[in-house]
Amino acid sequence: MKIINSIQDYRNQYGASIMDPEAFWSDVAEDFVWRRKWDKVLEWDFRKPEVKWFVGGKLNITENCIDRHLPARANQTAILWESNNPNEASIKITYQSLSENVGRVGNMLKAHGVKKGDRVCIYMPMVPEVAYAILGCARIGAVHSVVFAGFSSGSLVDRINDSGCKLVLTADGAFRGDKKIDLKAIVDEALLKCPTVKTCIVFQRTKSSLTLKPSRDFWWHDELGKVDAVCPAEVMDAEDMLFILYTSGSTGKPKGMVHTCGGYMVYTDYTFKTVFQYNEGQVFWCTADVGWITGHSYILYGPLSAGATTLMFEGIPSWPDMGRFWHAIEKHKVNIFYTAPTAIRSLEKAPISFVEKYDLSSLKILGTVGEPINEEAWHWYDHNIGKNKCPIVDTWWQTETGGMMISPIAHVTKLKPAHATLPLPGVQPAVMDENGKEMEGNGIEGRLTLKFPWPAMARTIYGDHQRFKDTYFSTFPGKYFTGDGCKRDEDGNYRITGRVDDIIIVSGHNMGTAEIESAIDEHSAVCESAVVGFPHDIKGQGVYAFVVTYDPVHEESHLRNEIREVVSKIIGPIAKPDKIQFVSGLPKTRSGKIMRRILRKVAEGDTSNLGDTTTLLDPSVVEEIKRGALG
Ligand code: PRX
Questions:
Q1: Assigned superfamily of 7-316+395-486
Q2: Which side of the chain, N or C, has fewer Cβ within a 10 Å radius?
Q3: Quick check: pTM over 0.85?
């Protein structure tokens, strides 16, 4: 792999990657262990859409993340685990021990009848075993579908059934701050509605008392004790499925994004090393949960493939106090720290003494991901955490892209606060105007598309290729549409301005407004609802719900709480509306379409100019909505 050390290197390599993408990526891919080399680097057609990388190549990603580092790195820490409880000892998992643990999980799955291509659902806390679970699936060619352990049983049911999982790996419970969440109880409720699941294996974390369902449930420690640590790696085709990860859609149910083995491996490793300029021996910490794509790509696959030491944190930034992140950075001498703007904004509100108590001098590079970072938070992060000497890489990407796409390269790219700056090598953005024409030149604003494939892109939506095509390749035929708006400044730097569809990003989590609305509508008092985002100090965007009830509401706060509970039960606590305004009707066009533009303005507190409302069926509802707006 060619290292990028200067902006000139970047320009040269970027140019080369555009001129001849196949030569560029084949050169990068040379650095991996392949059981068989590819016959062709790329086959693609965005009209179908179909994309294949490293066609004919054979590999197993775990051989690249583990075996190839042995014996040289046998005693190097692969995963550094920090407990939720600061008084519990941290754990260092070496590459050798990772190999054995992953082998055991692979064998345990096989012993329960899991074969190549079978789907396994992973619903676990942030413990080392979740890494063994993920890599154990990859070892034997099973497809993992990790579901964030904050989702409710209803969300779990949808995801398990959509992909027809055969087995669930879970835990008795999870610790999150001072709370204990009974994961197994949630799984039990879900499995009543999941006919494909025959087996559930339970890791013991919280030691909560529970009963196992005979012939379906097993203790992780019992099962693991029965198997060997050596598990041969299944030979996978580069285009075989590696995992499914669900992300919210702007309509309907969540989309199971499918990622494949070869391209994903090459791209996550390449972007990890390039963007963070990772050096041998450094400690890298990505604070995401493994239930999201950031955790897949940059807690596990990217760093482990690069032979790095990756920190995995079980807890939350605010417990036992607001200094928890900074404490862990000092304790583990973290060199590269990658987090979400929402976390920065919440920690920034705490007294600065929580930061000043700790020695953060090990830090060399900072990163952000998940949503636009506002300039003020950027400067706070730069000044107080980076002490004005650590570059901040504001990395733009998506569950669908698999890896970072537009981002500064640390120490190379000139930074501009709140800008994701330049496309990484191999990434070809195109900004489109509202007529579907590509905008040329700089100093422009439009919709962000990608006009050429990159190795880690999702290949399809599990079980629904038509939806994949409709969602991403139909708005601008021949191009992948990201759903984001962006600006390109005079120097060619990109600034992502946010979603232009009905997806809102709350605390960095992608949520479909339609999904929240359908959960709200489950409340028996609710007739219909409309959800929009509004600017929120800490979460970036909050959830604002306009709710129409069948009967007049007498006890507003009581009903609000009940609605929040329903949403929490159906989707999970992260989707709970921050504001609920009861209205007698929604602003609809004559064809029955809700005019969200108006609701967004009201939610933003800007009612001075709501634009044209003459096409509304009943313009008078707008006055009522304005009067009742929640500040
Ligand atoms: O709107 C963009 C925003 O997050 C969306 C993707 O969300 P998700 O699939 O959950 O993946 C998040 C982690 C990769 C994007 O469409 N987004 C992500 N990173 C940034 C961002 N918006 C602005 N700046 C970013 N750095």
A1: ANL, N-terminal domain (3.40.50.12780)
A2: C
A3: yes
